[in-house]
């Protein structure tokens, strides 16, 4: 295997591991400790818990090894970042929501997909802060097409209606200029064409008073 | 082992597994594909990738089993939620940042800790959307002390200065009334006493125009 093929294989293994972590995170949350059906399957869960303990031990061994390697590499955070590290768009980051994130040449940015219980706030609904996280990201992508990444300024998020779990949604962002000529990005999360959450991102502006 | 002890053991195993997933997520992101030192340790990484593949296979087997159990339980999302499911405060949720979240009797809510590369936006800094996620949560906790959980309304987040990775920060939220008598929660994230991000959460208010 040449170096390029090896790099691709490593990246794929990384994403595959992240996918596994993502699925396991979701599934661990969906089996309730106090579910009425739990007594009937307690034995089975006991076995799975034992398996999980084993895996946790293996994770401990592997993380110790990775710790050692990270130490050998020195301050690895100063190195170039691996692809997919971002907590919203990064496919190799097991905490990144399972979304497709894109940016069109016209500066329109977007993200689509649906979210499971890992991202739940009120029962059956996406956590409002997760909607803010996604919109912040999409609006910053739209802004960053204009130059260096946005810093400072403000994010305003308006919650119109609940965003359900397990429903496909579309988050979009585009550039806009305020009445004062200030550059901003505006966008929204829609489900079946209906706006659930909208947001505006102002960079370095005076903006909204806290 | 009686039922209570078993429930505690299951909850601890769940949190321990989540901790393992959290650490692995962090470590997988910190070892860069294209680090100059990588060639020297390629063999070691190959071996770890193989181990990860094996674990991913085991994860697949376990998730299949959990899928089957979830199906047997019926619509498990209608059951009571297990402790620690929340994407900000839930210790059993591997995607929840490793923070201590609390609420005092006077309605003051807070979260403290530090964040690693899993939550990185610009290099070395916490993703602005992650700050918004944490503040949304803390402000909603403060508001929820007044009655049913907050819904609708607006969240405004102002970014004053960058929030570094691996630095302890304190996020706090408290109730406040606007000039119009409207109930809101206000708060901020501080590092060594200096405000990095501030926010206001208005429930159902007319609030800021998008």
Automatic annotation (TrEMBL), chains A, B:
Alphabetized Pfam families for the sequence: 4HBT
Superkingdom as given in the UniProt entry: Bacteria
Keyword Magnesium part of the UniProt annotation: no
Ranges for domain Thioesterase: 124-177
Annotated keywords: Coiled coil
Gene3D superfamilies (alphabetical): Hotdog Thioesterase (3.10.129.10), Thioesterase/thiol ester dehydrase-isomerase (1.20.58.350)
Coiled coil: 38-72
Keyword Metal-binding: no
The protein's name: Thioesterase superfamily protein
Naturally occurring in which organism (per UniProt): Williamsia limnetica
């Amino acid at each position: 295997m040449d170096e390029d093929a090896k790099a691709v294989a490593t990246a794929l293994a990384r994403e595959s591991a992240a996918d596994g972590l993502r699925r396991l995170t979701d599934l661990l949350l969906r089996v309730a400790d106090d579910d009425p059906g739990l007594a009937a399957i307690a034995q089975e869960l006991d076995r799975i818990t034992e398996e999980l303990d084993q895996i946790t031990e293996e994770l401990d061994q592997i993380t110790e090894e990775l710790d050692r390697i990270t130490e050998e590499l020195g301050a690895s955070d100063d190195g170039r970042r691996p692809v997919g590290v971002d907590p919203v768009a990064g496919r190799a980051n097991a905490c990144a929501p399972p979304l497709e994130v894109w940016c069109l040449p016209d500066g329109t940015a977007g993200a689509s997909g649906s979210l499971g219980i890992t991202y739940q706030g009120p029962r059956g609904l996406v956590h409002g802060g997760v909607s803010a996280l996604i919109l912040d990201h999409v609006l910053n992508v739209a802004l960053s097409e204009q130059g260096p990444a946005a810093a400072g300024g403000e994010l305003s998020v308006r919650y119109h209606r609940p965003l359900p779990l397990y429903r496909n949604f579309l988050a979009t962002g585009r550039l806009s200029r305020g009445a004062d000529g200030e550059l901003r990005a505006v966008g929204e999360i829609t489900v079946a064409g209906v706006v659930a959450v909208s947001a505006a991102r102002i960079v370095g502006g005076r903006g909204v008073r806290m």
